[in-house]
């Protein structure tokens, strides 16, 4: 099990360097903490006032912490596991507090953690692990968020917020070099077009050589190239309305993923002596392309706002990989050609301080439509599965009301009704045609109480239901399996939290205890010794734990930081025909029993010579089981990571130079893996790397 009962009592204070997103300083005293402003509840609020477990990381902190791509935030957020999929490096699979999905690419799967870019829901995990550019902050919300967010936020949501132009004249550019011949160039700028309109644009290009040496091909593999651009037109300083138009382009291509074979046995030992050495005659590749556009319009009226968010996403993802690491390509070769289109509309009513300042209201309508065509080839025989007009139409009504009973006590109730209509048309390798459809509906309420003991200390208690939509098995391989739908997965979550700022705003400690009761678990298992997969409702599970985050100003330019999170898991009921029951598995996938981060950073002004900074952190994460099968050698091992940086900023802030080192101990471990019969192969995590960057701002 992820952790034995009672182990959740282990608590260590935690910190993340200036966890702040964007905000004004709490005071003029440089030795007090910044006020952290988030939009977790769709209003701009002080993080300490939000009765939700939230981690917010601002742009400056992303740079200082060496976060290059989205999955790098894993060690910074309690009980969040982000990793690349076994198929492509540009995709990301997410688990949080025991809920998640190992396949985030296939059009017939759903995610338990909702991903949002500027409040636009991203249905596919493909393309989410690209390099970050022009990011204002990342907010990670833990616990069900259905009363306020789009769809499939069963255990939480990850929000990426890009920088919005505010009428400034700004131009900045940076260049980075690093390990494996890494090169990156970024540029962004904004300018006013009038007294109330401004435009911003950002562009990014990066490239690196492969980290893995392929003996069969005699060359390094897994190289990557990324290109991204984003254009935003927005108004500002307007009391009547806010409007932002955004257009984006993403491209990620290269070798894709080449898995590394494991030696026979019960431990994850590389067959060729090093996880970064493979031997596959298959030339893996990955080509991801996305165009997107969105509109965010808010009409301000006396006492309330009306907000509309509309989006369009068009993406294609072509990839090929051998999941057997060259040991059995006849079974492990996977080649997909995917075309996907997503459209969403969201209309919200937001009111704060009505009924003599005692009532806050949020209500809305949501509509989402996704269509996918795909060709999936498996094995060296290239068995062909064709998905045509795979569609999901989701409709929802949601709302939340918060009543401020007294200055100290407030209560909130909310609910969401959702209906997902799924259609699947597929031609199987044997020529069989399958045409199925089904509608799934869910009602997910929420209730919470919050009490403020003082302006600096508050506590909250919440009870919420969350769900992950049901669907069909697009990769199952047989008529019966493809035609068999799986029901929505649901969770009932209890959470007790404490938020505090102590020692004259020099110490911030936020803690939460959570208990997740899952029903109708959607667990993915492989069919025989092939890459065909089957998702079924296996039963129920309980996952509980403690999360603590803290930030401390120590004086003389020093900040201390750390996080800790625990997970205790167990199956409560299993279908006797499910794979975990048949294999006598006791572990809920991706539930490390404990994970923590500790660190220190320092910044000091040297007058005309500028300012100098340095920092280091060490993190630990216990091992965990990847999937439903208890395969010892595929279990992700316990890992300890050390990161560090040094930096210099000019006195006027125009120039910056930073040197980052990650995984300085050069730990070799894997993020994901698969076993086909007696063959097992894994995807290695990042080895030791360094990066040197220089930035200039005008």
Walk me through what this model shows.
The chain is mostly beta strands and 698 residues long. It contains five helices and 41 strands. The strands form seven sheets. It has a 22-stranded antiparallel barrel. Strands 3-9-10-7-8 form a five-stranded mixed sheet. The longest helix has 6 residues, at 59-64. The protein is globular. Mean pLDDT is 89; it is low at 1-28.
Topology readout:
Elements (H helix, E strand, L loop, with lengths): L36 E2 L6 E2 L6 E6 H6 L15 E4 L9 E4 L2 E2 L12 E5 L2 E2 L13 E8 L13 E7 L7 E9 L3 E11 L4 E12 L3 E3 L4 E3 L2 E12 L5 E14 L5 E2 L15 E2 L6 E17 L2 E19 L6 H4 E21 H4 L1 E20 L4 E22 L4 E19 L5 E20 L4 E12 L10 H5 L5 E14 L4 E13 L2 E5 L6 E5 L1 E17 L2 E9 L1 E7 L4 H4 L11 E12 L5 E11 L17 E11 L5 E8 L7 E7 L2 E6 L4 E9 L1
Parallel strand pairs: 7-10, 14-19
Antiparallel strand pairs: 1-2, 3-9, 4-5, 5-6, 7-8, 9-10, 11-12, 11-41, 12-13, 13-16, 14-15, 16-17, 17-20, 18-40, 20-21, 21-22, 22-23, 23-24, 24-25, 25-26, 26-27, 27-28, 28-29, 29-32, 30-31, 32-33, 32-34, 33-35, 35-36, 36-37, 37-38, 38-41, 39-40
- What value does the average pLDDT take? 89
What are the low-pLDDT stretches, counting only 5+ consecutive residues below 50?
1-28
Shape: globular
Largest sheet at a glance? 22 strands, antiparallel, barrel
Distance between the termini: 54 Å
Structural class: mainly beta
Number-wise, the strands total 41
Strand content: over 45%
Helical residue percent band: under 10%
Number of helices, where a helix is a run of at least 4 consecutive DSSP H or I residues: 5
Radius of gyration over C-alpha positions, nearest whole angstrom: 24 Å
């Amino acid at each position: 099990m992820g952790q034995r009962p009672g182990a959740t009592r282990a608590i260590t204070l935690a910190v993340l360097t200036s966890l702040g997103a964007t905000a004004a300083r709490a005071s003029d005293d440089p030795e007090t903490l910044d006020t952290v402003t988030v939009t977790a509840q769709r209003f701009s609020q002080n993080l300490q006032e939000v009765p939700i477990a939230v981690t917010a990381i601002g742009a400056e902190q992303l740079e200082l912490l060496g976060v290059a791509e989205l999955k790098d935030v894993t060690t910074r957020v309690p009980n969040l596991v982000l990793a690349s999929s076994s198929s492509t490096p540009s995709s990301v699979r997410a688990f949080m507090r025991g809920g998640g999905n190992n396949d985030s690419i296939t059009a017939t799967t759903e995610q338990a953690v909702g991903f949002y870019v500027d409040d636009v829901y991203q249905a596919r995990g493909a393309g989410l692990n690209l390099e970050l550019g022009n990011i204002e902050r990342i907010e990670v919300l833990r616990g069900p968020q259905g009363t306020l967010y789009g769809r499939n936020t069963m255990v939480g949501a990850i929000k990426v917020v890009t920088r919005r132009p505010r009428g400034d004249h700004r131009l900045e550019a940076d260049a980075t070099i690093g390990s494996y011949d890494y090169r990156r160039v970024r540029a962004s700028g904004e300018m006013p077009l009038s007294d109330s309109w401004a435009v911003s644009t950002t562009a990014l290009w990066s490239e690196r050589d492969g980290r893995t040496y392929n003996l069969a091909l005699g060359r390094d593999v897994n190289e990557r190239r990324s290109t991204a651009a984003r254009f935003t037109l927005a108004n500002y300083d307007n009391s009547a309305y806010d409007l932002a138009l955004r257009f984006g382009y993403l491209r990620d291509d290269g070798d894709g993923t080449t898995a590394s074979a494991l030696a026979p046995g019960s431990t994850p030992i590389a067959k060729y002596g090093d996880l970064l050495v493979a031997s596959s005659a298959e030339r893996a590749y990955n080509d991801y392309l996305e165009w997107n556009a969105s509109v965010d319009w808010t009409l301000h009226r006396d006492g309330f706002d009306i907000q509309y968010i509309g989006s369009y996403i068009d993406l294609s993802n072509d990839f090929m990989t051998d999941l057997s690491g060259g040991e059995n390509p006849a079974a492990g070769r996977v080649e997909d050609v995917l075309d996907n289109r997503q459209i969403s509309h969201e209309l919200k009513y937001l009111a704060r301080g009505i009924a003599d300042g005692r009532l806050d209201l949020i209500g809305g309508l949501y509509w989402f439509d996704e269509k996918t065509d795909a060709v999936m080839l498996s094995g060296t025989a290239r068995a062909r599965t064709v998905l045509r007009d795979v569609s999901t139409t989701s409709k929802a009504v949601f709302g939340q009301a918060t009543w401020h009973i007294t200055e100290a006590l407030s209560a909130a109730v909310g609910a969401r009704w959702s209906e997902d209509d799924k259609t699947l048309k597929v031609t199987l390798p044997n020529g069989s045609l399958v045409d199925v459809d089904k509608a799934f509906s869910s009602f997910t309420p929420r209730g919470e109480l919050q009490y403020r003991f003082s302006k600096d200390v508050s506590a909250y208690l919440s009870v919420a239901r969350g769900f992950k939509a049901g669907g069909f098995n697009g990769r199952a391989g047989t008529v019966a399996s493809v035609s068999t739908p799986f029901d929505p997965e649901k969770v009932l979550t209890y959470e007790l939290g404490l938020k505090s700022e102590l020692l004259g705003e020099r110490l911030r400690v936020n803690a939460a205890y959570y208990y997740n009761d899952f029903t109708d678990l959607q667990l993915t298992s492989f069919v025989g010794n092939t890459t065909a997969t089957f998702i079924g409702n296996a039963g129920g599970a309980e996952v509980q734990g403690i999360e603590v985050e803290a930030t401390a100003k120590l004086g003389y330019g020093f900040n201390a930081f750390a996080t800790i999170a625990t997970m205790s898991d167990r199956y409560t009921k299993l279908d006797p025909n499910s794979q975990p029951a048949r294999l006598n598995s006791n572990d809920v996938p991706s539930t490390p029993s404990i994970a923590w981060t500790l660190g220190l950073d320092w910044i000091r002004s040297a007058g005309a010579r500028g300012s100098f900074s340095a920092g280091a952190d060490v993190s630990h994460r216990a091992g965990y089981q990847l999937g439903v099968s208890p395969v010892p050698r595929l279990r992700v091992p316990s890992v300890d990571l050390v990161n560090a940086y040094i930096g210099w900023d000019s006195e006027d802030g125009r120039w910056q130079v930073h040197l980052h080192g990650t995984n300085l101990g050069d730990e070799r471990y894997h993020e994901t893996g698969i076993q086909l019969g007696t063959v097992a192969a894994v995807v290695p995590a990042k080895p030791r790397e360094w990066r040197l960057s220089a930035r200039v701002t005008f």
